[in-house]
Amino acid sequence: MFDFLRRQSEVPDVSPDVVFEIFGWPISNSALQIFFILILVILFNFLVVRKFKVHPTSRVQHFAEWFYNTMVRFVQSITGSEQKARDIMPIVLSLFVFVGLANLINFIPGLTSITYNGVSIFRTPTSDFNTTFSMAATLIIFIQFAAIKRAGIFSYIGKFFQFKQIFQGFKKSIGEGFIAMIGFFVGLLDIISELAKMFSLSLRLFGNIYAGEVLLVVIFGALAFALPSLWMSLSLFFGVIQAIVFGALAAAYYASSVPDEGEESL
């Protein structure tokens, strides 16, 4: 993000810059940032997590276990189910860690000043709509498969195409049949609702992060150093909030789409 500060009149493009190509496949600076984050996470796993013990002795492990238990309680409060919370926790934690790092890592001084052929090789991934839409689409597809696995494919499809309810309704009475037809059209609207979740999730995250970068450029150009320093501090806070919101929505969508099965009360 700091590369924008040196180019006060230059607002970041919506689309990422292509840094180079591999066999004709364009590699953008947002993709390179994603690879960089993955490398950091892998290194953290091999250098730190693998040293964790059954009885914690390090502050890092104490913090990691406290953070995990806090997230479990947080997700349980959203899903209302311990089983669903445990099922979705790997996804929620992965999203939280990735989105949090993606939003905050470019605040490291000098990181975005690294260039190749005049193009910055790193860009905040969540300010690229391709990244946010891919995450949202993958999440929604995962939830659909989880719901099918839990409820069965025919029961799941029947939630959207309620032909059985129409037959049973008209079998009882004409009034019940017309009410069932209303439910049938509502089921069709639910299909649109599932698709809308992808755009809602992706646009919310993309819009907030990209708008933050644009505002930082505008504020820096207008008011020099004082207010941008305050805005960057707020951006750190909002970056964490966006990670929490994205993970919370993932848990909420999972809880609303995947049916209960032998759950224990919290």
Task: Name the descriptors.
266 residues; mainly alpha; two-stranded antiparallel sheet; two-stranded antiparallel ribbon; 71% helix; 5% strand; disordered N terminus; disordered C terminus
Rg for CA atoms: 23 Å
What's the β-strand tally? Answer: 4
Structural class: mainly alpha
Low-confidence stretches: 1-9, 262-266
Largest sheet: 2 strands, antiparallel
- Alpha plus pi helix count: 9
Please indicate the count of domains: 1
Strand content: under 5%
Task: Give the end-to-end Cα distance, rounded to a whole number of Å.
Answer: 42 Å
What quaternary form is this? single chain
Name the overall outline.
globular
Mean pLDDT over all positions:
77
Strand adjacency order, main sheet: 1-2
The ordered string of helix (H) and strand (E) elements is: HEEHHHEEHHHHH
What is the percent of helical residues?
over 70%
What does this protein structure show overall?
This protein is mainly alpha-helical and 266 residues long. It has one domain (2-257). It contains 9 helices and 4 strands; from the N terminus they run αββαααββααααα. The strands form 2 sheets. Strands 1-2 form a two-stranded antiparallel ribbon. A two-stranded antiparallel sheet has the order 3-4. The longest helix has 50 residues, at 174-223.
